[in-house]
Design brief:
By secondary structure, the chain is an alpha/beta fold. It folds into two domains: 198 residues, Rossmann fold (3-Layer(aba) Sandwich), CATH 3.40.50; 105 residues, 3H domain (Histidine-containing Protein, Chain: A), CATH 3.30.1340. The chain has a five-stranded parallel β-sheet with strand order 2-3-1-4-5, with helices on both faces. A hairpin with an 8-residue loop joins strand 7 and strand 8. Helix 1 crosses helix 8. The longest helix is centred in the middle third of the chain and has 17 residues.
């Protein structure tokens, strides 16, 4: 029996998490879609403003209600905003965890989305034994974020209030991204909703296989282009068979973001020493290495393998296997 899906999608306001969550729930036929804002309202009805003043403010201006603001004197405004946001979210997290507990107990799939899903604050490990739990943080470049933020503010007819706080929301965006990377939570750049969904599905669905490639360092960009850029796939690890070693040299890489992959290739080309080091490793393994790769669906996985083969990147031993 399949474990129930518990999918958590966090981001700052205006990134597009509600749209992504709705589309992902539809794609996976998940009927339970919950916004953390609704959970927060329930908690507000239980815990009053005298006890939790930050809870009764918005996530982006919770810092104005911090009781111990003097503790942050001398620190940056960004630190104060992050402290207020974290204090605000900390009152909502226990209720979110209770929702997850109930979903897991009932074997119900659920998608939960909201700004309160702060990596490091919510404990997902305690659900991993009984649920297929996946945590994502969505991100966007600042100009894209601002455009969406303005549009959303006008749509919900609270434009005046919200538009004043774009800076605070951007600070929260960066704080969520930093915490996600620190705690190993995938950060998905939501530049295109279809690409975003496919990248998330490459984590959620177990459409993975091992593939052995043989190519020089110069063709690393071709591998990235086929697996990640064209098909929304993910490179989980890389293994190099080194002569004289009983086990291959293996490294977890978990590369899924096209921009990040392109930056890696660019840095490699701009650093002769780094490139030489990788070329030495390739030489030791005769340019042969294996990857575990994942794709959004079985058809895409087969298409990736076909394109790698047609591009002359797949390794074949002397027996033709």
């Amino acid at each position: 029996m399949r474990k129930p899906y518990v999918i958590l999608i966090g981001s700052a306001s205006g990134i597009g998490k509600s749209t992504v969550a709705s589309e992902l729930a539809r794609e996976l036929s998940i009927k339970h879609l919950i916004e953390t804002d609704f959970i927060r309202e329930i908690v507000r009805g239980i815990i009053g403003p005298d006890y939790a003043p930050t809870l009764h403010r918005s996530s982006f201006d919770a810092y104005t209600a911090l009781r111990d603001k003097e503790r942050f004197q001398g620190n940056s405004m960004e630190s104060l905003i992050c402290a207020g946001f974290e204090d605000h979210a900390s009152f909502v997290i226990p209720a979110i965890e209770k929702v997850i507990e109930r979903a897991v107990a009932d074997s119900d799939d659920v998608v939960i989305e909201g700004v309160h899903l702060l990596p490091g604050l919510i404990n997902t490990e305690k659900f991993s034994e009984n649920a297929s739990i996946h945590f994502f943080v969505l991100a966007a470049e600042e100009n894209v974020h601002k455009e969406r933020f303005v549009k959303r503010a006008m749509e919900i007819k609270r434009g005046g209030k919200h538009l004043e706080y774009f800076r605070e929301n951007r600070v929260i965006h960066d704080y969520l991204v930093r915490n996600a990377r620190e705690h190993g939570v995938p950060v998905i750049n939501n530049d295109d909703i279809n690409c975003t969904i496919r990248r998330m599905l490459s984590f959620i669905r177990e459409n993975c296989t091992e593939v052995t490639l043989q190519h020089p360092v110069e063709r690393l960009g071709d591998v990235i282009d086929i697996i990640i850029k064209r098909h929304g796939g993910r490179i989980v690890d890389v293994s190099y068979p080194i002569p004289g070693f009983s086990q291959p040299l293996k490294r977890e890489v978990n590369v899924y973001d096209p921009a990040e992959a392109e930056r890696f290739v660019k840095r490699l080309n701009e650093s002769p020493k780094r490139k030489r080091d990788l070329e030495r490793l390739y030489t030791l393994s005769n340019n042969v290495h294996s990857h575990r790769i994942c794709a959004p669906d079985p058809e895409t996985l087969q298409e990736i393998l076909r394109e790698l083969e047609e591009s002359g990147l797949v390794y074949h031993d002397e027996d033709g296997d």
